[in-house]
Specification:
The chain is an alpha/beta fold. The longest helix has 17 residues.
């Protein structure tokens, strides 16, 4: 934070003079990166602790699901289209990048609509889009599936690894081993889902939630709002990011998700199986469900030896506490997904706090 305004100074002073011991968790990968880049964590007093939660969709993708996608790309006449973040995520024995180096046809896209173009241009191949992300990316993929159905593209399907955030937050608040006093809630996801899911969480667990933007001032304001609630004994869901987030969310995007997807249980790295936290295609779209179309079974969950991504994602340890961090695991040679993704906690720590935990 090279330059800070008078208002930021006032917020910092109010935060730094807080005497109570408080633990807050941000549950968005963009927040994790912004907090690390701005140095906010280092400006807080020792009694106020910030934890990084399961806010990176690449990072929370289970090992078994990565292995299932690798099993898919080994089948004949498959073209997999995916976002670039997924390429280097290690499976148990391989990665999509390694599979491509061995001849698998894997293409990087910036939009799921790119996969439709590939399907139109390769009628003799099966095109699979790897659907990953939270409520933020699901609407675009829902629209893509509707477009594929309207065009009659029989060679297009989606391998859905989508997850939704509120069930994971419920688990975090319910886990006695994860002691969190309040949540810095994700701005992007909240644009879609609105405030209601956080209101339910706050009322049930008597812990505050604040939907926060991504600028330094946003995050400081969000922290201050949480501390104020905790000090007053309140437990409400508030919006700091009012310039973007509406109370009701984005109704069109929510309806699009509900039309195409249905909630199912999903495996989260570090959190296990969480009911109703995944998105699978509804019956009328099942002919475009790649898991079913290509008979891909559930794969066994085999943890990566020595990798502590699960503990990092649940805030039980910080990245430098992992024995591999900065030694065997670096952005150039990542062992786990938290170092692979540009929104991963380990990548953020490695990039912006280089003195910590290096071997």
């Amino acid at each position: 934070m090279s330059e800070i305004s008078d208002y930021q100074q006032q917020l910092l002073h109010a935060i730094q003079t807080e005497k109570a011991s408080v633990t807050l968790m941000e549950v968005c990968g963009t927040h994790t990166m912004a907090i690390a880049k701005s140095g906010i964590r280092e400006l807080l007093p020792p009694n106020i602790k910030l934890l990084s939660g399961p806010g990176c969709p690449v990072c929370v993708t289970s090992q078994g699901d990565i292995d299932a996608v690798i099993e898919l790309v080994r089948q004949k006449d498959i073209i997999l289209v995916t976002f670039g973040d997924m390429m280097r995520v290690p499976g148990t024995y391989s990665s999509l990048q390694e599979e491509r180096s061995q001849g698998a046809d894997i293409r990087i896209a910036y939009s799921p609509l790119d996969a439709l173009r590939v399907a139109r241009e390769n009628a003799d191949k099966e095109i699979v889009f790897l659907g990953i992300g939270f409520e933020t990316t699901a609407p675009a993929i829902a629209v893509t599936l509707e477009q594929a159905r309207s065009e009659g593209l029989g060679n297009f399907s989606v391998f859905s690894l989508h997850k939704v955030v509120p069930p994971a937050l419920e688990l975090i608040f319910s886990d006695p081993d994860i002691n969190v006093d309040g949540l810095i809630c994700p701005g992007h996801v909240s644009v879609v889902i609105g405030v209601e899911p956080y209101e339910i969480l706050a009322q049930k667990h008597r812990k505050p939630c604040v939907i926060t933007g991504f600028e330094t001032l946003d995050i400081l304001e969000g922290i201050y709002m949480l501390l104020k609630q905790i000090k007053q004994g309140d437990a409400q869901a508030e919006i700091q990011y009012r310039r973007v987030v509406k109370r009701e969310g984005n109704l069109v995007a929510r309806q699009s998700i509900e039309k195409v997807f249905k909630p199912v249980a999903a495996r989260w790295r570090g959190l296990g199986v969480i009911p109703d936290s995944g998105l699978a295609l509804r019956e009328e779209f099942e002919h475009m469900d790649a898991r079913l179309k290509f008979n891909i079974p559930e794969m066994e969950e085999i943890p990566i030896k020595g990798c502590a991504c699960g503990e990092v994602l649940t805030g039980k340890i910080s990245p430098p506490e992992c024995l591999l961090f900065g030694r065997a695991c670096t952005p150039l040679k990542p062992v786990g997904p938290c170092m692979v993704s540009h929104e991963g906690s380990c990548a953020a720590y490695y990039r912006y706090t280089p003195a910590k935990g290096r071997g």
